[in-house]
Specification:
The chain is mostly helical and 224 residues long. The chain has helices at 21-26, 28-59, 63-87, 92-100, 111-133, 138-143, 149-180, 193-198, 205-223. The protein has a single domain, classed as Methane Monooxygenase Hydroxylase, Chain G, domain 1, CATH 1.20.58. It contains nine helices and no strands.
């Protein structure tokens, strides 16, 4: 008579260090770093695709359609910025293990951020062309906002995108500084302090200068 055997399903059988086969299959501890970065790249891919489409709409005079896409693009940047909170849960010492397998891989190689740098300038050029077509400059759009509502909203959408890029850069820099330090060299041989300098870059400087010009103009009006 055959002896009946009972398998103990409470014990994992897969190789790995997780407490269960479910954990060992998902490799959640090992893949945390990769998961955050992979999802960030997907959000950047979506966001930059929306910016490219919005640029085409602006060139075609379809500002309303562009605004909807730019709102979506800015949300993508908000998502990837918030995700960085998860990376700060990593131990600075344990990260050194991950760092060794990155080789020369670096955030400077991010395909998503390369796309941000590629698609953003044409958006600014399309905006400037739209202003020129209306016989306006940036300051006039803000002063006469009610008369040029769509262009005003477009100016704000570009400012939002630019600001979200900067906020991501700031957050990324602080995460890197918290985990590996702010006076060290990164995986690609680039000093971390270079990241800090990048947070001062604006894609649309004219939109930011307009704030100073509007404040100066308001002060002149008060004194006059």
């Amino acid at each position: 008579m055959a002896t009946e055997t009972h398998e103990d399903f409470s014990e994992p059988i897969l190789p790995g260090k997780g407490a269960s086969d479910y954990e060992r299959y998902l490799r959640t501890d090992d893949l945390l770093f990769q998961t955050v970065h992979q999802s960030s790249e997907l959000w950047l891919k979506l966001g930059t695709a929306e910016v490219a489409r919005a640029t085409a709409h602006v060139r075609a005079g379809e500002v309303g359609a562009a605004l909807r896409l730019l709102r979506r693009a800015s949300l993508c940047l908000q998502f990837i910025t918030r995700q960085l909170d998860m990376l700060e849960q990593m131990s600075p010492w344990e990260y050194q293990t991950i760092r060794r397998v990155l080789g020369h891989g670096s955030g400077f190689d991010s395909p998503g951020f390369r796309e941000v740098r590629r698609v953003t300038p044409p958006l600014g050029e399309a905006f400037e062309a739209a202003l020129a077509g209306a016989g306006l400059d940036v300051v006039a759009v803000y002063v006469q906002g009610r008369e040029h509502e769509e262009l005003y909203q477009l100016a704000e959408a570009l400012t939002e995108w630019d600001e979200r890029v900067t906020m991501w850069r700031i957050r990324h820099y602080k995460v890197v500084a918290r985990i590996i330090g702010d006076q060290v060299v990164g995986t690609q041989g680039t000093p971390v302090e270079v990241l800090g300098k990048m947070i001062h870059h604006n894609f649309f400087p004219a939109l930011w200068r307009a704030r100073n010009q509007l404040t100066a103009r308001a002060k002149e009006d008060e004194e006059g």
